Amino acid sequence: MTGRIVVVGDLVTDVVAVLSGPPAPDTDTAASIRFTGGGQAANTAAWLAWHGVPVTLLASVGADSAGAARVSELRAAGVDCPLPPRTDAPTGTVIVLAEGGRRTMVTDRGASLLLDPDAVAAALVGGAHLHLSGYPLLDAASRAAGVRALAAAREHGLTVSVDAASAGPLRQVGGATFISWVRGVDLLLANADEAAVLAGSAGSDPADQARSLAASLDAAVVVKLGAAGAIWADRDGVCTVPAPAATVVDPTGAGDAFAAGLLATRLAGGDPRACLTAAAAAGALAVARIGARP
After folding, report:
1. Which end of the chain is more exposed for a tag (fewer CB within 10 A), N or C?
2. Are the C-beta atoms of 220 and 260 separated by less than 8 Å?
3. Residue ranges in the chain whose pLDDT is less than 50
4. CA 25 to CA 36: how far, in whole Å?
5. Which sequence positions are flagged as catalytic?
6. CB contact at 8 A, 109 and 92
7. CB 205 within 8 Å of CB 173
8. Angle at the Cα of 47 (from 11 to 228), degrees rounded to 5?
């Protein structure tokens, strides 16, 4: 895989609150709060640019100050952002509550749901690889753009990876339905909760889930296990790597950094073990800081 990676998905403002302890109902909970750029696709694109990979982000923001700031940040980081802002919705906002190494997200996706399928398809021409955030597929308002991206990538000969995005919305649409949308991709990434939804009756062991999904899709499947490392399964077998030691400040964006590290290494010709090792190192770097970007 060589050339430009085109990332399709979301670009939002993250309001990240790293709590001092469990939130206390009906009173105050001290926190460190920061406004920052977010969105699974945008975060992955930013980390890819940090790795020196040519990258284009296809995501919609509103014609507002927040949208202008989010696009400006990414362009300054080396990410091409060709889509014009939308005048019919504000830039999306996600409130992230981080505490004890875990996070809860409260989402208003705004203009992120208004991706234009035709614009997405046109922008894929000339790309080498499509990385699709699962979020466009998981919401009916943006699903057509996600489906069109996959079809256009096949039409133009791009290799394809998909991130399963989020276990809650996956449960709502159904694992089998999501699998039907992404059949034919080269690589599927999921965390342990997402893999359990997608693998269905394949059992509770992540390695078994990865094997089952890889066989079903005839693709490489990566299951992210956080502090326990990661698993790669494909037709040649299963590879596992441990996670490096890390001090978790904010887990937001760790999976996005992981995906970027993996794709950058794959782009350079790395084998599964090298890809997982680089991905785990990037994820460890991400959790040690507040916010989802390098």
Report:
1. N
2. no
3. none
4. 26
5. 256
6. yes
7. no
8. 105
Q: What's the pLDDT tens digit per position in 211-240?
A: 999 999 999 999 999 999 999 999 999 999
Instruction: Find how far residue 292's CA is from the centre of its chain.
Output: 11
* Residue 114 per-residue DSSP state: G
pLDDT confidence of residue 249: 86
Sequence ranges of the domains in the chain: 5-12+38-91+110-287
Report the C-alpha gap between 67 and 85 in whole angstroms.
7
145-164 pLDDT, tens per residue?
999 999 999 999 999 999 99
Coil vs helix vs strand at 125: coil
Termini Cα distance of the chain: 24
- Look at residue 207 in the predicted model and tell me its pLDDT: 94
Helix 143-156 and helix 175-182: axis angle, to 10°?
Answer: 30
3-class SS at 265? helix
Enter the DSSP assignment of 86: B
Amino acid at 201: S
Determine how many CB atoms are found less than 10 A away from the CB of residue 12. Answer: 28
List the strands of the sheet with 55-58, edge to edge.
55-58, 5-8, 129-133, 159-163, 187-191, 220-224, 230-234, 237-241
Residues 6+ apart with CB under 8 A from 27: none
Q: What is the pLDDT of residue 256?
A: 97
Structure token digits, residue 61: 């923001």
Handedness of CA 233, 235, 238, 239 (dihedral sign): negative
According to CATH, the topology of domain 5-12+38-91+110-287 is UDP-N-acetylmuramoyl-L-alanine:D-glutamate ligase (3.40.1190)
Does pTM top 0.90 for this prediction? yes
CA distance 182 to 267: 21
pLDDT for position 1: 52
